[in-house]
């Protein structure tokens, strides 16, 4: 009799198990088909796990082993459900960040622009590329963020920048701005390859430039290394070329916002590449867009920008003027350890120009009779860039053109005694006159007769 009862109970339980399994299958299927409208993935797992656990416990009521197995299944089920819940919560947060930073708009724009070499990276991809943002991967850091070296899955080396902050007003437009910046294609500008928008502050991915920065070349371990004037002038011209492109050729115009020697990278040939658009903004189209928090680096900041909080193209010009001073003097733009009146390089330079003591500031490596005419011209250009009022400063196009003419003259010394050849080299509109310095047998540019150079014609 007892045997018959047990068989009957087991038969009933097996029937219940089949019915329960069919129910679970139906619920799970409906969950996937209806996109989770009846039961989400967590609910399904909980129902299945709880059912199986109770079933095992019920069928093994008098079996300690069976009861233990049921409890284990129950614990595993709840743990898995919690992990999935946390993961779904994290994904929800990432989706919120993605939408907040204009990711949907960026994605749609990317689909409409076939062949665009720009990628939206996931946070997981960039963590793998940088070994979870390991400190040993750090290439450099500043007020705007930290830059890491990374390797993508296709073994492409990249520079990954984690920005510190982003203007609240710019978050919605960030994706759109990234698309515009990604279309910049200039030999002297570091290429923006992609970005990650599913984090609180977007992460930028640039092409990797293997050499150091201009700052390190001037002030770093290379400090004793001789850097010829022609090399300095070429780096200055290439950097000015890049900024002039951003201001005048990009559509819409782009302001860099943090021009400094550490944001000018150098490749294996010491060719300049302007980088770090962490502070970049699209040129404002009306006055209401000008107001922003002051960003930048001490020693390079435009005084007018600090007073008005209005970043303009002339703010970049001022900062570039400081870079010119670094190339001329090999001194840092700001030195906390110096005397009070010598801490700021730009103020010290302007004072020296007024007192006709430029020679005291110039780097000894390039200060000689042969170079003096060129050094005075570059110094005068730097002085114009450092004018207190932005309207009195030249444009980056004018700065580029002046440096281009100086570079051509210094790179073609055989034209100095041939005015016609020099005129052909510089262009018909130039009015540069080269005169021989009889006392030394060298050549220099007489500043009083270089009106064509001064006017940027």
TrEMBL record:
Similarity-based family: Belongs to the protein kinase superfamily.
Molecular function in Gene Ontology: ATP binding; protein serine/threonine kinase activity
Xref: InterPro entries: Kinase-like_dom_sf (IPR011009), Prot_kinase_dom (IPR000719), Protein_kinase_ATP_BS (IPR017441), Ser-Thr/Tyr_kinase_cat_dom (IPR001245), Ser/Thr_kinase_AS (IPR008271), WAK-like (IPR045274)
GO biological process: cell surface receptor signaling pathway
Highest taxon above the source species: Eukaryota
A Pfam family it matches: PK_Tyr_Ser-Thr
Keywords: ATP-binding, Kinase, Membrane, Nucleotide-binding, Serine/threonine-protein kinase, Transferase, Transmembrane, Transmembrane helix
Protein name: Os09g0471600 protein
Residues annotated to bind ATP: 161
Membrane spanning stretches: 20-38, 45-62, 68-85
Protein kinase domain segment(s): 133-415
SUPFAM superfamilies registered for this protein in UniProt: Protein kinase-like (PK-like)
